[in-house]
Amino acid sequence: MAGKGSVVDLDxxxxxxxxxxxxxxxxxxxxxxxxEKNAVMAEARTKxxxxxxxxDAMLRQPATQRGRKSKGGDGGTVAAKFRDPESEQTWSGRGxxxxxxxxxxxxxxxI
Length: 111
Known about the structure:
Shape: flat
Oligomer: single chain
Mean pLDDT: 87
Order of helices and strands: HHEE
Number of domains: 2
């Protein structure tokens, strides 16, 4: 295996060697990722402690209390505004137009 700063000759490696190199690189990547995440978490905890807060308390707060605005609405259903007289299918006027109303005068289908 090449040392730090060395160039690895990938073309000269066998499939098994390339697989082992890939696996070793993934293990090292995950180790470094964990170390960096831990460093960020420690820094966040230190800064929050200076403010008299804890990271756990910050993560438990609802999004609206952390400064985010809610989107509004409950995401419920909307009353139908149009009905197909033949199939009795309805459409609220939101989303993709159904085939039975596409390109036609919507006033003819208004409920």
